[in-house]
Amino acid sequence: MNQHYRKIIHVDMDAFYASVEQMDNPELKGKPLAVGGSEVRGVVSAASYEARKFGVRSAISGIQAKKLCPDLIFVRPRFDRYKEISKKIRKIFHEYTDLVEPLSLDEAYLDVTENKKGNPSATLIAQEIRKRIFDEVGLTASAGISVNKFVAKIASDYNKPNGQKTVNPDEVEAFLEKLDIKKFYGVGKVTAEKMYQLGIFTGYDLKQKPLDYLEKHFGNSGFHYYQICRGIHNSPVKPNRKIKSVGAERTFGENLSSEIFMEERLQSIAKELERRLQKSKISGKTITLKIKYSDFTLQTRSKTLPYYVSDKNIILDVAKDLLYQERLRNSVRLLGISIHNLNNEEKAKTDLLQKSVSVQLKFEF
Asked: What EC number(s) does the entry state (predicted)?
């Protein structure tokens, strides 16, 4: 029987922020580089491949990064520049298909089952896209090609940097069986440790566990794990992905212990949040205050309003109430305000009801 499959490409830029910095400043090429953070404060946003060899990666503190790599160079992030480059890359994607789902500035899913070039080979399309990004933008990208988003995402990491991996329909289950469970997209560090304790080390091990066993140990996620180890993942590429939250935050040069000083900082954060909400033309009901203490522990406090807001003064009033809701546990290094429960969610529900037309095409990688 002739099966019909989607052809999905996951394109992932290689060390995107760091690569942009090295491209714009040739003196940084070939050197260990961290975007964000510093020797004394802050968190690393991205690391070049030269820095990664020493164990430097995103989300670790600048202090820790410098200990791992004494020659590390820190540069300030330039998000406007990254967005500018990202737009150029997305323009290339849209020359091949309108079914593009960006996950962030540096990665996206493309459904090329039907494509504007009339090319039946997703592998060749991925090669062409990567070549065009290099020729027209000056950066390298990696790609994964397969029958669904889950497998394509894992495959894009397989031959990084500047490589690609195709997993054909008849190869999917064997590919997943050999994979270490921590390589499964969506299986975080805590879940991976739990699986290891249960004797689940590979996709094959996961496949041996019955559904009731997985649901017993992993609750609602059990069914998801049962499906993904069999290569079942039916989520379509969603070109109009809805924003679920908008936020702004600040890391301080010195830890703050007085709420009065924090109020001043919250004022500028609320102003920035209002700007972002107005730019996106959305508002929300649930306001969350994020507090990161000097010992790096995190706390969030939320309040849901009966109406949608985007005004900085209302946001600030709620954030202040949340700040004084209970005593602070320690001095504070970071404050953030985010807004959820957005007024674009009603439209998102309507969009989900629209059926996507499936085209019966012979699958050819």
From this structure: 2.7.7.7
